[in-house]
TrEMBL record:
Transmembrane segments: none annotated. It comes from Rhodohalobacter mucosus. This is ABC transporter ATP-binding protein. GO terms for molecular function: ATP binding; ATP hydrolysis activity. PROSITE patterns: ABC_TRANSPORTER_2.
Amino acid sequence: MERALTISELSKAYDKEPVLKSLDLEVPAGTIFGLIGPNGAGKSTLIGILTGLLDYSEGTITINGFEYTSSNEMKIKKSVASVLQPPLLFENFTSYEFVTYVCEMYRIDSSGLADKINSLFSYFEIEEFAHVKSKQLSSGSRKKLAFCAAILTNPKLLFLDEPFESVDVISIGRMKSILRKLKEKGTTIFITSHILEVVENLCDDIAILHKGQILAYLDAKSRRELEKDASLSEIFERYVDVKSVKDDLLNWL
Ligand SMILES: Nc1ncnc2c1ncn2[C@@H]1O[C@H](COP(=O)(O)OP(=O)(O)OP(=O)(O)O)[C@@H](O)[C@H]1O
């Protein structure tokens, strides 16, 4: 099967403190892939590296067929979009200016673009903020705006770091519906989350990241097998050594 992303022996440290430890991962093209892991597992660090915002000490990364090297960087960036946590916006741009600027950077055909932007803003009920500066938006609206900009660039691979955090349930449903449509069109979607329910019914393959290492890779077949008698959260607990806490710890409450 074609791979949208191949990572081998990737290592990253902050101030000599290892965060990603010789990590290997392959993501099949045209699927919705979920990377789950507890707080501090290294999910955002990995997305930061994959989107070119953070450097790394060792390893190789291949995205959409191109190995991540300085000579391939622009080719890769053109085919990739991301929604980070927190989302990166231009604070003094209005919502409309932000998405049009992003589309210009990606050299997206401007014909019909205004209609697409307006329909997306209406779909996510942020049309009233079209001419409001990003810095004045609520955190949910910021997330939705970053999402709109990312999908307008027609990425082959879309990175979403905690995409549903701060977003209301109605909009989460709408985002998921767009993601399923994008998958049908062949886009690969890479989602990180620490909320298992979010990825459970959306993602195809799921990998569990813990302390900078992939503890388990659950493809559709192994998920079907495991999920026969356990929820994803029970499976997660089997892999991640969840520390038990004493019941009486909070007796003072
Ligand atoms: N800029 C930084 N400098 C030093 N340490 C950092 C930095 N950013 C993250 N870390 C540390 O790296 C580890 C991984 O953090 P990261 O944010 O990648 O995890 P995460 O899985 O995304 O967590 P969460 O689910 O809480 O967002 C944590 O121990 C964190 O404290």
